[in-house]
Structures are given as C-alpha cells and as structure tokens.
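Build the 3D complex.
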Amino acid sequence: MFHVKINNKSHEVPKGTTILQACRHAGIKIPTLCYLEGVHAEGSCGVCVVEVKGSRTLQRSCITAVAEGMEIQTNTEAVRKARKINTELLLANHPTDCLVCDKNEYCTLRQLSSDLGIKNVSFERTHAERADKDETSPSLVRDPEKCILCRRCIAVCAEKQSVSAIGMTGRGAASAVSTFGDMGLGNAECANCGQCILVCPTGALMEKSEIDGVWKAINDPKKTVVVQTAPAVRVAIGEDFGLEPGTAWTGKMVAALRRLGFDKVFDTDFTADLTIMEEGTELITRLKTGGTLPMITSCSPGWIKFAEHFFPGVLAHLSTCKSPQQMFGAVAKTYYAEKLGVDPRDMVVVSIMPCVAKKFEARRPEMNGAFHYWQKKMGLKDSESFQDVDFVLSTREAAKMIKEAGLDFPALPNEEFDQPLGMSTGAAVIFGATGGVMEAALRTAYEVVTGKALASLDFKAVRGMDGIKTAEVDLAGTKLKVAVAHTLSNARKLLEEIRDGKSPYHFIEVMTCEGGCIGGGGQPFTTNLETRKKRASAIYKEDAGLPLRKSHDNPVVQTLYKEFLEKPLGEKSHHLLHTHYTKRGVHPGDVAHEKKEHKAHAHTH
Amino acid sequence: MKKNTVIEDLHRTQETEKSKTYLESVKMQDVARECGVPAAQVYGVATFYTMFSTKPRGKHIIRICCNLACHLEGADSIVDALKGKLGVEMGGTSKDGEFTLEQSSCLGLCAEAPAMMIDGQTYGSLTPESVGKILDTVRKGA
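Done.
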C-alpha cells in the first residue's frame, strides 16, 4: 500500500493504481470524459486533471500512477480552470443543438459542461469541415459533427469486440473517426453490435431510428400491428424512466405497449422456447449422426455477422436456427395470420430488442420465409416480397415512444401478454443473460435424451460474468462438453480453437455483448457492469418465479407443432425457422467465389 | 506474430504504383492482411502521413513549403503563382494530369527559402517567375 494525501487528508491506496482510481477509492469524484474503465485510458481529453505536489504541470489522473508520499489536490482554482478550458476546447467544435439531439439528457459532454459551470465558450472552431453523417448501416448512424475524438468507440470495438471496424483517420484539424476508406459502417466489417453507441459520450453514435415507421403503421387502420419483446427489454426499460435496475417490469411494459396502440402485444420469449425445440433437436441430431461439432448458437445477430466476416470457414458449426426474433416474424405472418384470417401483407411485425444488430438481421434478404410460404398460395410475384419482421426498435426507442405518448410508465398497471404468442417459460426469459440459451437448451436436451426429469433446473456453472464459462453435463452416459462466451473477443478465442481443430466442446453459446442481451447495444444508456449484473439477477428471478421453466413444457409451442409445424426440423420448420449464412470475409479475396454456405443438415430441395 | 511493417509496406506499394502515385483501396487491404492489422488502422496510417495519398494524384507531386522561414520569404506568392499556372487549388491536380499541388511541412531548406520539392528534387530561392520555368522543365522530363 502507498500512503498518499488527497486534498490534505491521508489515505492508503493499493500500489499500481492510478490517481483516478485512488481518488474514487477514497470517495472523491473526479470528472472524466474519454476514460472508460477497463477499456480505455488514454488521457486525451484532459478533463480529469489534478494537481500533484512537485509536478511542473497538472497531471491527467486516469493515466498517472500513484507513488508513495504523493500529495494530490483535486479541487484547486488551477484544476477547475484547466477542466473548464479543456472542455471549452471540445465545445468549440461541437454543435450546441442539444435540445433536439437524440442523446440529450444522456449526453456526458452536456452533463460535464453543466457540472463544470461553463457559461460560454471562449474559443473559435478549429476543426475542418466534417464529413456527412454516415447512414450506410441499417443499425447505426454516425454523426462526425458531434464526435469529440475521445476514441472510446474505437477502444470498445477493438478491445471488447476484436472487430476494429473503425479507427482514427487524417491528422490535426482533419482528424476523424472513420471506417476503412471512409466507406461507412454499412460497408465495413462492423458486427452492428452497437457497443460504440453505449460508450459514446455524445450523440455521435446512435441507432438508426425506426420510430416514425412504427407510428405510421399503428396509425394505419388497415394494418394489424403486432409487437414482440425480447427477454432483456423487460429488465432494462424501466431505467429510462428513472427506475432502479434489478426488477422485471414485464407487466408495465406490456401495459405501455398496449396503450401505444399495438393490436397485439406478444413475446419473443415464445419463440425463444420454439428456438430451444429446434436447436435442441438439431444438437441431438448432430450428436447422433456425426454432424459438425461443436455446434454454436445462432440467436445473436452481431455474432453471426462477425463469424461471416472473420471466420467464414467455420460457418458449418453455426446452428441453422433463425434467431427468436426471426422465428417470431415467420410464425406470426404464417400460422397466426392464417388463424386470424388476416392477409399477411396487412400484418406488421414490430420487434423491441435490446440490440441494434437486430435491425440488420431483420433486413437480411433471406429473412422472408413467410413470403415464400404465401407466394404459391396467393400467387405473389417475387417483386411483392415482404420481410418477416418489418420494424425493429431498440429498448431506448421503445422508451422514447412511451414518453412521446405521455404515458407515466412507473404508474402503469401490470398487464399480461396477449395469447397465443405471448406464452413462454422460464427457459425463454433467461435467453437475455449470458449462458441463458445454453441453460435452456440443457434443460430440454437432458429430459429429451434421458427421458428423466431434471432434479435441479439450475445450471449455475454457465451463469455469471466470466468471459468464457465451461461445463460438463452427463447426458445418459454421454459427457456433453459445453462452453459459453460473451463479447466477440471471447468468442474469437473459442473460434480460433475450432479453426485450428482443437476445440474440445460439443456445444457453444456465443453472445455478442457483455453480459448477453441485457448488455446489448440497444439498451438504455445506464448500461454498465453494475446494471448488467442487476439486470441478469432480475432475469433469473423472473425465471425462478415462473410456473413453467422448460421450453418443451410450453403448451402453445406444443400446439404450434400439432396444428402447424408437425415436428422440430420438419419440412415447415426447415423453410420458416432455419436459415443459411453468407461468407463475407474482411478483405477482398478472403472468400474467393463461393458466396453462400448452405448448411449440411436437412437441406434437400 | 507477424512483423508490423505497415509504413514500409505502404511506401513500397505506393512506389511500385508509379503511374498512379497513390494507394488503391485493394492495395491497402492487401497490406492489412499481410501485416495482420485491421484495415481501418492501415487506412489511418495512410491518411495520417502526407507522403501517402489515398486519392489519385498527378504524375509529379509538388510539395510547397509554407513554414516560418519560407512564409517570411514570400511563400504565399509562390503558392499563388503555382495555383495560377496549374489552375488548381491546394491539393488539386492539374487538368493535364501532370502536377498535384500539396503543402508540405518544413523541407529543411530554410537557407534557400522559399523552397519546394517536386518528386525527389528540391528547388530553392523561388520567385513567382522562376516557378513557371521549373514547371516547364519538369513537364519536359528534363
């Protein structure tokens, strides 16, 4: 331990910590802007400066290590002045249209300016004219005009996700954050995870909003508008209304969506259960027939695009199952539309997702299973194709719509999902946390393979925030080796093992974002490690409290198979619930001429 | 672990593309793959250093120095003369594709200010009149 003085008071702080960490440890707040705990400490913004006795200049506390006997002052005239000037220098190049900025009350720069008491900006603009907004991606929008070059987005993209789709370009006044060749995020090896949106301190990175389209559909009396909500949304949306994380606000969320005017409020959890039926059966089939192993989950669309870019050679390991979002769209516009007697072209499927990669997924050209189902029956031309999912809203966008409608979210009553597509089990809700899909699959696979009921449903080895978790499960004599990874840098490690023929596993779950979907790029800006943990605990609480906790016990899923799909991996499932992947590569030439990879399983046209 | 030789590789790539004197996208991606470095980072390097260009340039690159010594000795009038003769703004390429005009950081020719460099060759003690003759000489390939 080092003995230091902070603001004239003695403190003992661990060796190897920075001044910033030491001050936080001592309960002293130092404002930061470019610093991102555990990911990015570069000292580029100069907001966290402090005075250190004996130092000629002010020190940037996020990158300066404490030393024995150090005397630190965090609140002197010189410190306050320097923080103000450094922030004013950023403001000189930043627009001041905060009132109409999407980031508004969540903007760190705005908050900082207010905290530091900045009244006017003493400096002229120094930056060259910035590039236009990058709107090439269906998931994200980048506005270089609002970028303060803190590089947090670059750090999270490189360190957490090992993608590096963005970097610094140019120099001096022309410096910018951009993609290779300024081609835009839509043309880069971006996974669309949106973690950069969460760490951006300003409004330079946002999801591509689909709110207007959803309002238009709701207002159109001809349309039957159904909404589905992903498991992770219910444990996070309340945070946008100032509620404390750690609770599932399922009932209030349903009530709010009903009041927005959706005709039916359904649950992606229903198709999460359906995913388990298909994916569990696929795993068992692969195990029995010597199929490609390890099999890897396919629910996380950021992960899918990452694999298509960086590991095009291992796509055969991916489950062919569509994600629950896409299964929902396909079931809603076939089975459910038929049941209602609604023309599928007049049905609008809206998703509320903790994710911005889901926006890209919904627009994949192959995600039009319902159209193919109806094409023959209704004699539709190819040009009349429609997508299974029409609009994807992030949790944040859904909260915005609730605010626009003037609803008092905390005061809403608890209401139930509509039926039949609102029925789900505890196995589905845990899809929202890292390890959840694995646990749900194990609950079903175990009972299907052994024919015995599980003594305990909790597979605790796959829960929690460790980057890679492994477990061994005895499936009637077969030792099933499983692994769970979250963040793409952790996924990369497991993928490299597979590529090198060294993977010991049978089944792997990959979630793109830290903590799983509860930490997704579409979640409220309150997302951090602490809120991620609280949301996960809310998810497991929700699971524990449900009467049904195994996907194969979902009565509506059972009915769906009886009335429509017949059996998992059957003919209809194959067309509506399964998909194929695209070899993308990163550089031209990575993928020679082969465009599409069709999976080995069950594709017999 | 591959050796990080991005800068050297970009130089070699640009030099072997003599007729183009710039880095094509595909070539930069090749460098990224060979060095095992993300393409966005290679692009960052290519756009940071003024010796690299990611856009097509003329056959000859004029690098005019505007640093302190040259500035005091009238670099602005040299810039104006060059702009007039070539019919381009700073960074532009003349219509005949012969010259691209670029501003350079200090060339170290302060004793001969104002100075400029065309391709590898330096020219000092410039006057608005002398630059015209220099351009003609270079154009003729002398």
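DSSP finds six helices and four strands in chain B.
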